[in-house]
Amino acid sequence: MPNTHSPSLTMGPVYYLWDGPKWRDFHFRVADEAAFDRVVIGETVCSKRQHFIEPHLAEVVERLEAAGKTVILSTMALVTLERESRQIRDLIEGSDHLIEANDLSALGLLNGKPHAVGPLVNVYNAPTARLLHSRGAGRICLPPELPFASVRRIAADGPDVAFEVFAFGRIPLAISARCAHARSKGKIKDNCLFVCGEEPDGLPVRTLDGQSFLVLNGVQTVSHTCQTLLGELADLTACGITSFRLSPQDCDMVAIAALYRSVLDGALAPDEAIERLRHIYPAAPLSNGFHHAKVGAAWVTRARDTANSAAL
Amino acid sequence: MELICPAGTPAAFREAVDAGADAVYCGFRDETNARNFPGLNFSREELREAVGYARSRGTQTFVALNTFMRAGDEEIWYRAAADAVALGVDALILADFGLMAHVAEIYPAQRLHVSVQASASNVDAINFLVEAFNAKRVVLPRTLTIADIARIAPKIRCEIEVFVFGGLCVMAEGRCSLSSYATGLSPNMNGVCSPASHVHYRKEADALVSELGDYTINRFSSGEAAGYPTLCKGRFDVGDTRGYAFEDPVSLDVMGELDALTAAGVCALKIEGRQRGKAYVSEVVKTLKEALSANPQRRAALLSRLKGLSEGQKTTSGAYNKRWR
What we know:
The complex is a heterodimer. By secondary structure, chain A is an alpha/beta fold. Chain A has 10 helices and 14 strands. Helices cover 33% and strands 23% of the residues of chain A. In chain A, helix 1 packs parallel to helix 2 and helix 9 packs antiparallel against helix 10. The C terminus of chain A is likely disordered.
């Protein structure tokens, strides 16, 4: 077990559409084997997908809690339909679990109740963090776009909440009312037939010159690169970040969590961890450009502190 | 129905007022607003003159402070709010909660509008901002259908403004980091999207290639009109499909749905385009103003006149129509 003074690890919600049994078994394994302290679950990207995981939610929550992990329930990132609003209201009224807000409606409804704020809410400065804290936010995962200078400043000036940083995973870059994923397969959102489920790690978008660039995940667009803050953990911890979010990709997340745990515990050098990570998740080149106030896709190697464009 | 018109320069501001705008929106010449482009926007003195000019003709002035405050530099945004309030602007258009909280606390009498960049897309979200910051109006994100707007309107306690004409964000506004992923500069943090400073055009044998940062955004064969490489309007390969993966190079025109928008409870129509020249602003404002009071037949004729002014000369009703999704 991690000691209480060491930063903790949070597993973010699975952003992709995995079929129910895959989603369940993935979380069972995380419960049984992974070094996460808390796990955020629940459909976050597209409300049409809800029924895939719903039959398995209760057993996944039970398994995670039996393993000593804190369960946080995620809300939808983009809420436009009455059905979606109702889902969030029901979730907030009916749940004993901590809830993570990913849009303004959840923030509004959670006023006065202890809650968490997800990385899809725009927290760019300490006054915003203070405002959210005054309304009940006890945990805030900062937006992946934030440079270290901002993270440090928010942690220094901000309220007494647990600040978290998005330290692993393809970066959620945008969300739309339109489903580009369905559109690429000749469909629209309303008759999509859940074609996004065909790509459990997202559907690559390449430039006309064959450069890997973005990845479609239903109505969400994520980066082709995998944001990897391993060399930056020490700086982030020193400035007051108390937990790190690893966002599930279709890879061995138990092994990924073990790498981060080892680096946080000082048992593994960041450079060695980075090399191992490349083997565990070879599908995406690594990036940390946002953290270093560069192009988001860039990979900044600490040793020489020079920005190299991510492998294209 | 109010017509809310863009002004990137004092000259465009006067044109918009003269053309019949009910309100003109603009921003300061810095990163506090989402059209932070070289050569655009207003000094304090220019804004003072603009507000006076507008007021003398019964036109309102709205000031957009619709980027997110950079941590540690909040004073830049606070100063902008203080100056705009002191100049007597009719509304501040805000996106950042921290800034909303500041304005609501320090200037409780100042009218506060929720920027489209805040992404308040449903009843609970809007009512949160009304209750927490006394917001008087929300500019709805371009993610809603007209039916959605009609459903929302009676349940919220503020006015509704919607974009009807001009550039179209495909992504939920204020929640998009595509630009900074490719260039390091984003709408939220820097007030720019797909900035010109990172645009390159490369000539190939029989084509013109447009690039943003290190990425190819489009390739135009000779004779094809080469559009600006806005990231989400580029051509890409997705699986075996080559094309406009997110959106065609189109702009928004939903004026044809004027009656439906009115019936839905919309009280103000917004024209995008602070980066546009004064001739464009004048023409669009004049035409749309006339269209508001014209009969349907005359309106159609007026609106068709605007087609030539639209990006790529193609338009869409965007998310206002369910099929767009």
